[in-house]
Amino acid sequence: MIDSAWRRLGPGLEPLSAPDGGPLSRTVKLVLLPLVLRPSLHRELAAAVLEETGVTVVEQLMAAHRHQLRATAAWFALLVRHLATHPAKDQISRDSCYPKAFELAVRHGDLAALAAGDPHPAADATATAALDEIAETRGEWTAAALRNALADPHLRSRLSHRLTAGWDESPAVDPAPEELFEDACRSFLDSFGFPGETEDVDQARPRAEPAWTTIVDAGVGSRTGRALRADRWPTVLPEPARARQLGLTELARPARPALDGPAPARCPWDRSIAARVLGLLQHSSDRTVLPDLVDLLTEEVDRACQPWEVLTETSRALLVVGTLLVTGLPDPDHHTRAHRIVAGMCRRESWLAWAQRQPTSPPGPARDDGPIAPYLRRLWVRLHGAETRGTLPRGTEEIQSLLLGVFRSVLLDGRSRVRTALTRLHGEPDAGVVSGGPANPSQGARR
């Protein structure tokens, strides 16, 4: 939808476009979603699946910003050209040029309006000043600054003591009674709605708010998180190593994270405090909204010591509900409306079933045991970043959209990896197989 609307804007967008003419993924993430479409202001765009009105809004907003986006592309190309020779280029990420280019397009319009010949001294000076501003405001939030902060022996000692004390002082396990949270969680999962569903969504949605309130107020997230650290929850997974089955750690039981370490870990709970903070720095399009590094490190230490290793009860409740959603998929007796939605997503991804049946299927994603570990890992990372930026979902509809959106992103990511693996094995795979459309089981990949 965004891709087709982008292509209809015409020429002039090449610096922000992929070779096939569609928008770069960074363009979508750093310009179109936060600055043009702005789902936080246009609530119809915040759903996991857009209704017809949402599609219309996307097309209208893209068309209305046609001239600004062309100007953004020109400013972006100029910024990137100047970045290569800028004295502080090590402090400036290429990603930061995307929103800055849009800002320059809004403030100054097209480059031609600012240019005074060829070369364009006014435009060049503006681009250099913009890069200077980025370097000045972001110099504190770099990997080098993080290393320098942790090199301070006093700060290291304080953080290490806080981490040890916080981990050891975790309250005793007080698991929530199953009847308390399972009924509330099932009621919440049964209140989901999606476009085109034949059942009456209006009758289901009123159950969402009271069910969610029960989950949060009862501290279900905190109780189950502490029990999970002792490998006593969730009961829907067999013991031992339940946290490992959820993909949150490679260990049999969660262990206190290190302050820093030599190599990044695959699972989020195995990453050091420094690695978690570095991930926030690398994936924040605007680092200036983050606290200073000392506060960021301190907050991360406190987060690691809490149940589910997140700070808020909202995040913990989301992880509980997400766990019950993804682990309950194989059991048709426990299916709710949310389960039916994600099961439908899986059925549409016929490439996965096809790839699993092939005798020469690649290892890894095509032979994955299921979406449990990828889903919980991605949900935890999303909540981790949202807590730091203060962008946790508000209201039950946003919460439900997040839970479904994470599942869809896991499926799309798996589709991309399988396509790449099958291409390496057989050449370009059959388009029907990897697009989610009907696939002929007897039909192999081309060549």
Can you give me a brief rundown of this structure?
The chain is mainly α. It has 22 helices and no strands.
Task: Describe this entry's structure for a reader.
- The chain is mainly α and 447 residues long.
- It has 2 domains: 138 residues, no CATH class; 189 residues, no CATH class.
- Helix 8 runs antiparallel to helix 15.
- The two termini are 32 Å apart.
Order of helices and strands: HHHHHHHHHHHHHHHHHHHHHH
Tally of alpha and pi helices? 22
Which secondary-structure class do the elements indicate? mainly alpha
Strand content: under 5%
SSE order and pairing:
Blueprint: H1 2-7, H2 25-37, H3 52-64, H4 66-83, H5 97-108, H6 111-114, H7 121-138, H8 143-150, H9 153-168, H10 178-189, H11 201-204, H12 208-217, H13 220-229, H14 242-245, H15 273-283, H16 293-304, H17 313-327, H18 337-348, H19 350-357, H20 372-389, H21 396-426, H22 431-434
Helix pairs in contact: 4-5, 4-7, 8-15, 9-16, 10-12, 10-17, 13-17, 15-16, 17-20, 18-21, 20-21
Question: Which key phrases capture this entry?
Answer:
single chain; 447 residues; mainly alpha; 2 domains; globular
